[in-house]
Amino acid sequence: MSTLVLVLATGVGLGALYFLVASGLSLIYGLMHVLNFAHGVFLTLGAFIGWEAAQRMGASGWAAFVVSILVGGIVGTLFATVTELALIRPLYERHIEQVLVTVGLAFAAVALFEGIWGSDPLYISGPAWLDETTSLLGARIPNVYFVLMIAATALLASLVVFLKYTRFGMIIRAGVENRAMVTALGIDVKKSFTLVFAIGGSAAGVGGVLAAHYTGYVSAHLGQGLLIFAFIVTVIGGLGSLAGAAIASVLVAVLQQLANYYLGGTGDFIVVAALAVVLLARPRGLLGRRPA
């Protein structure tokens, strides 16, 4: 029983990490119809700069941990904003060019990161509590999973409140439904879309720092590795559905952990098989919109 609890709890924690990465992808596509293959760059850059900030504060204390998260979020926000203004905005409604530009940025960024920080992983340390465990129904759960769950829950709640109950959120949703009408009312939709990109970058930057603590290291390929699962989660949940991404994140991660433990480490294969089944049986995903 304790083994099953451990597998399920670690699956939910891993799903929280997937959601931190996938939420930005889902938000950007759902509101702007941009498939951003450079999203992993925001995550990796946030992790590296967050690591640098923590190193200068002693690396292992709570203050350094909190500052690294804040710095990672800020860096992700700034880089995402610059990316939208310089590369994405001129290419709205030109989807092939968007894919080519973001894929090119992803490859170039990995090479740049390796040139600055090297190709070997940089191992990190955080507060000692993160490396400890907490007993839950007889299982010893690593505390880092609880941090991931709290962060993902806070992010989901914040995004829902922002989109439903703030002026910018209403403008963004209206701009997605009828951009021409909103523009005719004198509202600058472009600024709102830049804000969406910034929010996605912020979530990725925070996710990058937490991913580094989850894995124990940061490397130039950290974001690209997680981006694969983020895309799987986004497609299974339904492109553009934030709630779908949250549900799919947990389902995919739990399925992956169960398969890894009980089916001889076949978690990645089972996840890809699940993606194929969803694409064949329900192409729009669990909560995706039905095509008009």
From TrEMBL:
Predominant location: membrane
Membrane topology: Multi-pass membrane protein
Transmembrane spans: 6-27, 34-51, 63-87, 99-117, 144-163, 193-214, 226-255, 261-281
Domain of life: Bacteria
Transmembrane helix is among the record's keywords: yes
Subcellular location: Cell membrane
Keywords, sorted A to Z: Amino-acid transport, Cell membrane, Membrane, Transmembrane, Transmembrane helix, Transport
Family (UniProt): Belongs to the binding-protein-dependent transport system permease family. LivHM subfamily.
Record's protein name: Branched-chain amino acid ABC transporter permease
Native source species: Demequina zhanjiangensis
